[in-house]
Amino acid sequence: MKRLISMLRDRMRPRIGISGATLLRTCTIVLVLALAATITSWVLEFSARRVPSEPVRPVTAGDSAPRTQAADVAPIAFLFGAVPGADGSDIKLVGVIAQGLAGKGVALLAVDGRPPLALRAGEEIAAGVTLAEVRADRVVVSRSGAIQEIRMLAKPAPEGIVRVR
């Protein structure tokens, strides 16, 4: 038994000539130096005065460039948990009677799979959804201030009907 204990002591002796206390002190000093270097780096980073690469310009409040195409917000709304077909989100344009270029007129809209309804420009389609404008081939819908354009699906004319321009 004594022989086994002495053999275990021999194996447990440090192979390098540094005692445990010295090794602990050395590791502590190295870590304190690394911490000091990190803190110094962050202090220099935050206290440096930086010059912007380009001059700061004020941004206008309005949209300076007119939109050529309305943004489709349905995929983004789906990411945030919106359910398709809830609260007038599924609006299909069935027909249009436009009155000139002022955006007035009547649109035939199918909302959430229900039968189509005839609505005038300015009327509410669903809660928070208003028919803003009626154009010859599309309508503009306002969803709590956000504008969405809904185009009418192009269907081929029946036989015998010729489109005149």
Could you walk me through the main structural features you see in this protein, from its secondary elements to its overall organization?
- The chain contains 3 helices and 7 strands, in the order H-H-H-E-E-E-E-E-E-E.
- The protein has 2 domains: 46 residues; 78 residues, SH3 type barrels, CATH 2.30.30.830.
Give the CATH class of the largest domain. Answer: Mainly Beta
User: Per CATH, what is the topology of the largest domain?
Assistant: SH3 type barrels
Helix content: 25-40%
**In DSSP terms, counting alpha (H) and pi (I) runs of 4 or more, how many helices?**
3
Rg: 36 Å
Number of domains: 2
* CATH structural architecture of the largest domain: Roll
Q: How are helices and strands ordered from N to C? A: HHHEEEEEEE
Measured by DSSP, the beta-strand proportion falls in: 25-35%
What are the segments in which pLDDT stays under 50 over at least 5 consecutive residues?
none
**Dominant shape:** elongated
Distance between the amino and carboxyl termini: 110 Å
Largest β-sheet summary: 4 strands, antiparallel
Query: In order across it, which strands form the biggest sheet?
Result: 4-5-6-7
Total beta-strand segments: 7
- Classification by helices and strands: alpha+beta
Arithmetic mean of pLDDT: 77
